[in-house]
Amino acid sequence: MKSKASERQGSTAADCGPSIAGLVDELNTLKSKHLYRKFRVLDSMRGVRAKIERRDILLFCSNDYLGLSQHPEIIDALTRSARDFGAGAGASRLISGSSAPVRRLEEALAAFKQKERALVFASGYAANIGTISALCGKEDVVVVDKLNHASVVDGCRLSGASIRVYPHGDMSYLEKILKQSGRFRRRLIVTDSLFSMDGDLAPLPEIVRLKERYGAWLMVDEAHGTGVFGARGRGVAEHFGVEGTVDISMGTLSKAIGTMGGFIAGDGEMIDYLINRSRSFIFSTALPPAIAAASLQSVELITRDASLRKALWRNIERLAGGLKSLRLIGNNDLSPILPAIVGEEGKALRFSEQLFESGFLVPAVRYPTVPKGKARLRFSCSAAHCETDIDRLIEVLGKILGAVKG
Ligand SMILES: *Cc1c(COP(=O)(O)O)cnc(C)c1O
What CA–CA distance (Å, rounded) separates 364 from 377? Predict the structure, then answer.
């Protein structure tokens, strides 16, 4: 009761005991700066159509880029496997959690990513923190792009390695760091392939040239690239033709693949090392077999059928064209992530609120996910959108912008 009432009225520190008063003060500060976060509950979901707070809402924010989370073949695979194996894995991988579906999925992911072996983790977050912290330690240096995902940042911190950060996409700065870091045992460059808040691509061909020149290792986070980029949907490394030189290829099952989990693909020995040393792999329950079976079906579908990927790219072009005509975006790289930088946090929040009132869910991404004063509306596109969904969004955006100006 109490918490409901305080949510409505805005609680004061005096309402609480001394132990949590500090937390309430901090939350109130966040609210006053338009940086307070809350989630909305979906009562149902069909593709990109959801029921939220009793309204019909079109999602322009999901990472389910190919709409595979609702594909009948994948749901069938999930339910069949759940009948055989149950709903959960029951144990971690090195105990009794290494089910046949997980093994088959790992073989399929290795083949898909053109690597010797692959290893599945409970999430992409777990894959990143568990891999970077296993491969690097005090004697090593990790070299990272300023805008890498939080899970890469956390993995670097956890590793205890020295951390060197280069400004987003700045290749001469990356080279400078590599030149000055010869004394370290290992040098690991880590980069997102498609940056999740800016929607732009890492200059992988340049990074590959530098990593070879200085003998560094390269880990690429293809969370948003997998299933979306490349002629066969293998990712941004395929798109640039540099797959063979990526030492450690990371991906998630939770975005275009449409399920849940993360993975690492690479050399057999490197994978063997992770099995023995990666704490997030060893000390966490295995992926449920049914999720593995569904993911396997999804990888097979992506490999066999390019039609969903083509539909996604048609939608990306339509949405990008519309956003550009409203001057909400400039000459962005084309990707399923199209951010419109609004600037001030309160303004982005109001814009997002107005869109929700009109039936669209588009999040206002704010600090600390992006720098202060660079708040943005982050539009994501899916193969599950139809042309009229996109056209309606653009029309509503035009009206909102017109009202602001008028
Ligand atoms: C989403 C994301 C992750 C984490 O993946 P989960 O499977 O959601 O834990 C890692 N890296 C990047 C770039 C991401 O966007």
Answer: 5
Measured from the Cβ of residue 139, the count of other Cβ atoms closer than 10 Å reads 12
Q: Which atom, in ligand 1's list, is nearest to the CA of 224?
A: 15
How many A from CA of 226 to the centre of ligand 1?
Answer: 11
How far is residue 373 CA from its own chain's centroid?
Answer: 22
Strand, helix or coil at 383? coil
Which 3 state secondary structure label does DSSP give 314? helix
Reported as type and span, the H/E element at residue 142 is: strand 141-145
| Distance separating the N- and C-terminal Cα atoms of the chain | 43
Protein residue whose Cα sits closest to atom 2 of ligand 1 = 223
Residue 37 has φ and ψ, to the nearest 5°, of -120, 140
Instruction: Render pLDDT for 178-212 as a digit per residue (tens, 0 to 9).
Output: 999 999 999 999 999 999 999 999 999 999 999 99
Residue nearest to atom 1 of ligand 1 (CA): 223
Nearest-CA residue for ligand 1 atom 5 is 124
3-state SS of 359-398 is: CEECCEECCCCCCCCCEEEEEECCCCCCHHHHHHHHHHHH
pTM: predicted TM-score of the whole model, two decimal places: 0.94
